Amino acid sequence: MIPIKPQTNKPKIRPPRKFGTSNKVDPIESWEILSNAINDIENKNASKWSFEQLYRIAYNLVLSKNGEFLYNKIKDEFSKHLNTKLQINIIDFIIERGDNNVNNNGIIELNKVDSLEVLKKLNLLWSDYLISTWLISQVAMYMDRTFTKEHRLPLIYDVGLNIFQDKLINCKITENSELLLGTQILETFLNYFDLNRNGEMIDKFIIKSIIKIFESLINLDGDSYYNKYFEPELIIHSHRYYYQIVEDLLQLQSGSVFINKIVEIIKEEESRFSLYLPESSSRKLKNLMFNDLISSNLKNILILQDDGLKNWIDSDNFELLEKVYILQSKIDTNKRILKDCLHSLVLENGEHLKRLSKAQLNNDSAAKKKSSNKENNTQFAINYIKNFLDYKSKYDKIITKSFDSDIEMNREIEFAFVKFLNENNRIQEYLSLYIDECLKKTLKNKPTDEVEKTLNDCILIFKFIKDKDIFEKYYKTHLARRLLNNRSISTELELMMIHKLKAETGATFTSKFENMFKDMKVSQDLSQKFKNESIDNSTLAKDLARLNNNKKLEIDFTILTGDVWPMSNNKAMDDVNYVPVLDIAKASFEKFYASTYNGRNLVWAPNMCTMNLQMNFPSKSYLINMPTLAAFVILTCFNDEDTEDGEKPLSFEEIQQMTRIPASELTRHLQSISVVPTTRILKKVPMSRSINSGDMFSLNLEFKHPQTKFKIAAISTSSSSNKAPDTNSNNNIDATVANSKIESEEEHEKTLQSIQKSRDHEIDAAIVRIMKARKSVKYQILVSEVIRLIEDVSKRFRPQPSQIKMRLEDLVDKEYIRRDDDDHEVFVYVA
Amino acid sequence: MSEYVTLVANDGYRVVVSKKAASASGTLQSMLSEAFEEGVTGTITLHELDGPVLEKVAEYLCYNNKWATGGTSSGDIPDFPLPTAMALELLVAADFLHL
């Protein structure tokens, strides 16, 4: 509105004419007219009335101080009008159609058509009422502007709406019943709404309109009828509906049916909510629905034995698993229930894994001939790892296909994997055996990507296992066997594996492995060089040839660096009598080596070697590869012309005296050439399975073998005798045993002891390293630092504080460190 | 539907204004609602107003219609000439018309 600027130069102002045709306004008479007009407006018949006239009457009433009179009169009129309308249009209809069909809650039950009719009537009544109330409020606008405002009363339009709400809440259907109109309407509405939930078509428009009415009815405190009356009823109804669904579904005891049905219902309900309900209400109902349908049941459903999570995972039901994942995500962003179920399922799988691997074994060995217990156990270990990898890839697939590649889910599953893998105290050995198998057989002639995948799988398990130092120990042993027996598919593959291990744990972990390869390479070069030289040196070559029946002697030397390889010197080997030709070769190589590497000391280990021996039996000649010590026995004792082609029997003691091979070694080699049926080169009297002192041996001239070239494997120490293995071979591996097998309990125990010992050294080293750097450290800090260094940095094992304490005390005794004089908790480095 | 409305004063004075201009008055706007006689006939009889006042009111409605929607800054808007003698009568009329 533009302000009107008064003109100041004309002082005289005409007084306004007195308003109203007469000064006296008769309120009764005026209301008479207005009341008639209002009735016509309410009956949509207002066009015969002049708005100006009605407005003027109301205006004059207000001016003549009859505002309050008018206000109350209009209010009464609204109320009276509604009473009539509701009675005629709705209540009478309900009573007539309901036909006294009253349910337990005193609500009149109506059929679908009648319900819709009631709702339609209500909607029509409402929209008419809105229009008439609006028009009336326009007529009485002057009152609203002045009287209503001055007395801080609600505008007459709002009064109208409020009366409607009041009627809906408080109006009784019949005089003598407790049933209120509002309750009846709500029930009718909700029952009609429920028809849709049960799959019937309903009038969407009327549902929307009625909800809109409920939302529009706001009482004087600002609460809407929707929030105060409708929503609570809706929630109760919905809860009942969900409860019924769940109850029906649970009776079926089928998880898949449950999940599928619930997903369907949730989808329907959500579209219903978004179509009909305001946002805030939608949220509440969704929460209720998720709680009733998912939260209360998910766990019980997932743990169903026959048709639950276990079954779905077993049968790769990705679709259903995805549904489960989505349902779980709806109620909990942490997905705790699903995670917990998966966790325990994976652990259960761990148990199953053992049984499965065992069962496969039985199937295999039933087909094959009965193999030794140890071989079975080795195969079990390999199966175990193989099966684990299958499980792992199964879960990987589930995570990508069903769990939206959820990192958290993956972590939870891996967590469970780590747990059950490490509960198996032989897992490090299993893994190393599996890798052994791969590098010896499985990966032969496989395409690069498959090789890559297999190696990565190995690394994956490697990541999962704790106590990696134990793995290192086994890997070293198995690797040594592969290298010394030339059993690897290729050096390239071996190096790939080591490279991957290195990438995972750092260079220190694999340095010994790498040094083993270096030794092999250096040895090859040296052997070649020695051969060339011995050809040049004619006397040596002549000597060797003469002593070897004028045939060329081929020797390969393998020089192993002492602390790199897993086996240690066997002092007793120094006494062994070499056959003459090897004695010369040995002496000349020693000379050659001393000239190449001045000052290095060679210790011979014939117990780790094999020899190719040509044996001429009456029937046939054979080229036999056998352990060098076994060959010594034959060459020394049974190769002399004087013994009439070795037919003269020799006793165990005699053989031992002639060869000077230690008893335990001799026993097992004799066993391999005189007891094992297929390779019985020597006859033994008596014919028993074990070798005893006093047994007599002679050459078996009737010996026959299907192949002209074959190999005699050494029998491993523990199975060769029932005697307790001598402590000397404690740290010893038998390189002549070509196949790595799983350790027996005794061997395993010993390995653990040696691990414990090397752990002591590692802890010592860590303590000294820290002390050297810090000079003085508090006990607690020192312990945690040692753990950090060994577990996190070197990734080897987790040292126990008690073990660290023991090492500390030991180091104090040895005076590498001492306790501080003032503070006993502090250790000081002694330079 | 006509875009104009005829306003009639109690002395028979008639003036035609556009409905748009008339709706500056809350009262006039309501009267134009189709539910009532005025909405149908397009003629509003204002029994409370005499000719000169209605003329001035109509003049103001046009003035307001012209400038209120102009959107120009207030400096450009000319003053509305207001006879001092009618000031009080106009005030009452404005109240009635909700101007």
Structure description:
The complex is a heterodimer of chains A (831) and B (99). Chain A has helices at residues 27-42, 51-63, 67-98, 112-139, 141-150, 156-170, 181-197, 204-216, 225-252, 255-276, 279-295, 298-302, 309-314, 318-331, 336-367, 373-401, 407-423, 427-442, 448-464, 468-484, 491-505, 507-536, 538-547, 580-596, 628-637, 652-659, 663-674, 717-720, 745-774, 779-793, 801-813, and strands at residues 610-616, 621-627, 650-651, 682-685, 696-699, 709-711, 776-778, 817-819, 826-829. By secondary structure, chain A is mainly α. In chain A, the strands form 3 sheets. Chain A has a 3-stranded mixed sheet with strand order 1-2-6. A 3-stranded antiparallel sheet of chain A has the order 3-5-4. Chain A has a 3-stranded antiparallel sheet with strand order 7-9-8. Chain A has 31 helices and 9 strands. Chain A starts with 26 loop residues before the first helix and ends with a strand. Chain A has 5 domains: 27-179, Cullin Repeats (5 helical Cullin repeat like), CATH 1.20.1310; 336-522, Cullin Repeats (5 helical Cullin repeat like, Up-down Bundle); 524-604, no CATH class; 607-717, Cullin, Chain C, Domain 2 (Ribosomal Protein S5, domain 2, 2-Layer Sandwich); 745-829, Arc Repressor Mutant, subunit A. By secondary structure, chain B is α+β, with helices and mostly antiparallel strands. Chain B has a single domain (4-97), classed as Potassium Channel Kv1.1, Chain A (2-Layer Sandwich). Chain B has 5 helices and 3 strands; from the N terminus they run E-E-H-H-H-E-H-H. In chain B, strands 2-1-3 form a 3-stranded mixed sheet. The longest helix of chain B is centred in the middle third of the chain and has 18 residues, at 51-68. Chain B is globular, with a radius of gyration of 14 Å. At the A-B interface, helix 2, helix 4 and helix 5 of A face helix 2, helix 3, strand 3, helix 4 and helix 5 of B.
